Structures are given as structure tokens and as C-alpha cells.
From TrEMBL:
SUPFAM superfamilies: HAD-like. One of its GO terms (molecular function) is hydrolase activity. PROSITE patterns: COF_1. It comes from Glutamicibacter nicotianae. This is Hydrolase. Keywords: Hydrolase.
């Protein structure tokens, strides 16, 4: 019996235009009405949850920033966060710069986004943000939930393969985008599955009672944790290779199809 459905957002149920299809909305709402818990699990910070707020209002909890934040949509509040120190981020940046001297950095904190020189280009609009200063006391007081490193020319899989092993004892490292070479780092003990497991324990739900959906490498641990982990057929090859099950593509409303079959 499935008691909880955990779903990634971008590339899984959220299309490139930032929308969720009516079929997918209906499937999740019907699952919730049937008594199944819903939790969305995303690399996005809690400030950028517009697609699910538009689609579902205040339904459920959201695991944000690849597991560093548990956010309550209904109460509009952070339940807890697990942060990275500025000193650790500085050390990570030094290691990365030895491998990729042209890397640029940014940090998401519990209060906002801090951008380093060269991180954003004219194609990106991040809204209001602060300048990244990893020597500042203020950034430690805010708490870094995700540290970002961007390469202007290395393909993401090469960037990840070279930096990941060097950083493994310092931070958790993943990536979640096809179109930008971006490493996403958090507290060394944090990824989507650790926070999902903790949340399930609070509810008394076992891993084999969880159905999960994702498409990118930052979803792998979650799909491996869930007794019913589905990689989107439109997802990253590494994610597809690691998942027990495969869902049809986002364009085919793959998540909705699997939930509809579950509810029959």
C-alpha cells in the first residue's frame, strides 16, 4: 500500500514554461483525497515554489534546496533547515577553483540569494539578491542551505566528475540541470532522501510505502530510498540507470499516468 507520494518538480511535473498540467494536478488532488500524503521534493529554494502554489495552493509540505529545508506550504513557514557554514563553503570554493579556475559561485541562504562575480549572465534574472561574501558574519547568521558553483565552459557531467570526489568528505554534491553546468552543494549529510526519510519517520511511514518521482541526479538517492522509485523516461541517463521503475515522460504526463494506475 502506498501511503506517501514524493515528487520532484522541474522536469518531473513542472514543464519548462513553469506550469503543471491539468491532468497532473487532478492526479495529485485525487491521491490526496484518497488519503495519500503528498510531499514535493525540489532543488528550488522555498521562495520559488510558484508552480505548486498556483496548482495546489497550500497542499502538503515541501522539501526544498535538495533536502536542506523542510517547508510548510499551509502555514507558510520553514519547519527546519540544515545549513552549511561559510568556512566550509570557502574551502569548497578553493577546491573547485583548483579544478576549474573560471568557476563562479553563489549561495542560497534562509534569507535570500548571494551572487558572486560572474555567476549570473544576461540570460538569468534572479531578482533581488546580495553580493556573495563568504568572509561576512551575516551570511553565517543567515545560514547557507545551498552553495552553487558554475562553470562557463565545462560540460556538467565533466565538471561533476572532476569536482565531486574531491568534495565528497566536505559537502554533498549533485546537479539538476541539462542546460547549465552547475554544481549544487549542501551540508555533507543532506540530500533529498535524508530529509524525506526523516519526514516519513514523523508520519510512521516506511520506505516501501513511498512512491517517488524524479528526473535528475539530485533525485537518485530519493528514488533509491523509496520502495517505488520512478525515473522519468525524459530524465538524465544516470538517474534512469539507478531507478527501479520508469515513468513515461513529462510531456506524456508520466507521473499522472502512474498515479492514475495506482488509484484504480
Amino acid at each position: 500500500m502506498i501511503k506517501l507520494i514524493a515528487s520532484d518538480l522541474d522536469g518531473t511535473i513542472v514543464a519548462k514554461d513553469g506550469t503543471i498540467s491539468e491532468r497532473t494536478k487532478r492526479a495529485f488532488i485525487e491521491a490526496r483525497e484518497s488519503g495519500i500524503q503528498i510531499v514535493f521534493v525540489t532543488g528550488r529554494p522555498f521562495r520559488y515554489l510558484t508552480p505548486i502554489i498556483d496548482a495546489f495552493g497550500g497542499m502538503g509540505k515541501v522539501i526544498c534546496s535538495n533536502g536542506a529545508v523542510l517547508y510548510d506550504l499551509e502555514q507558510d513557514e520553514v519547519i527546519w533547515s540544515r545549513t552549511l557554514s561559510a568556512a566550509t563553503a570557502r574551502k569548497a570554493s578553493e577546491i573547485i577553483l583548483e579544478l576549474e579556475p573560471k568557476a563562479a559561485f553563489a549561495a542560497e541562504t534562509t534569507k535570500g540569494l548571494h551572487l558572486g562575480e560572474g555567476f549570473a549572465d544576461r540570460h538569468h534574472n534572479f531578482g533581488v539578491q546580495a553580493v556573495l561574501d563568504l568572509t561576512s558574519d551575516s551570511i553565517d547568521s543567515e545560514g547557507i542551505v545551498k552553495f552553487l558553483a558554475r562553470s562557463p565552459h565545462l560540460p556538467i557531467d565533466k565538471f561533476y566528475a572532476s569536482a565531486g570526489p574531491q568534495l565528497a568528505q566536505l559537502v554533498s554534491v549533485t546537479h539538476s540541470a541539462f542546460d547549465v553546468s552547475l554544481l549544487e552543494m549542501a551540508h555533507v549529510d543532506i540530500h533529498k532522501a535524508t530529509t524525506l526519510h526523516e519526514y516519513c519517520q514523523r508520519l510512521g511511514i516506511a520506505a516501501d510505502e513511498v512512491m517517488a518521482f524524479g528526473d535528475m541526479p539530485n533525485d537518485i538517492e530519493m528514488l533509491e530510498y523509496a520502495g517505488h522509485g520512478y525515473a522519468m523516461s525524459s530524465g538524465h541517463p544516470t538517474t534512469l540507470a539507478s531507478a527501479r521503475f520508469r515513468a513515461p515522460s513529462l510531456a506524456e504526463d508520466g507521473v499522472a499516468q502512474v498515479i492514475e494506475d495506482l488509484l484504480k
